[in-house]
Request: fold
Amino acid sequence: MTRPGLRLQVAREPRRRTQQISAQIVAQHHTLDQMVAVLGHAISSRLKPDARNAFGRFRSALSAHFALEQQFFLPLMHGAVDRERREVERLVVAHERLTEELAQMSAQLELLAPEDFSRRLKGFATALATHVNREEALLSSVLDAGAT
Reply:
């Protein structure tokens, strides 16, 4: 017996709820981008208390965001077609890698020169943007398929 793919499962979910969660995830992506900009400004301004606070807020927001995504994506994996399941698995592994990198950065916030930390933050932001693009492509694909 063939199990339904991710697209069929999303189609079976209440469409409105799926769209709301998807919109919430995309909105959070924009908020996280803004938080990185605020953090970058605090670091370049050499305001350590502001940088610590901005970093803490960003780290907490990213953790909560990853939890929401995993709450949304993981249940949909059951019975997903191989390609979609592998992509979701890669995204979850990326969450773990990004979380680990952020923990390392937390330890370096006070130790690195602002210029060095800014470079590290830019690298992190680039990796996060690539990850976000992959997530949004999967969301779009799934939602588009659910509409048909």
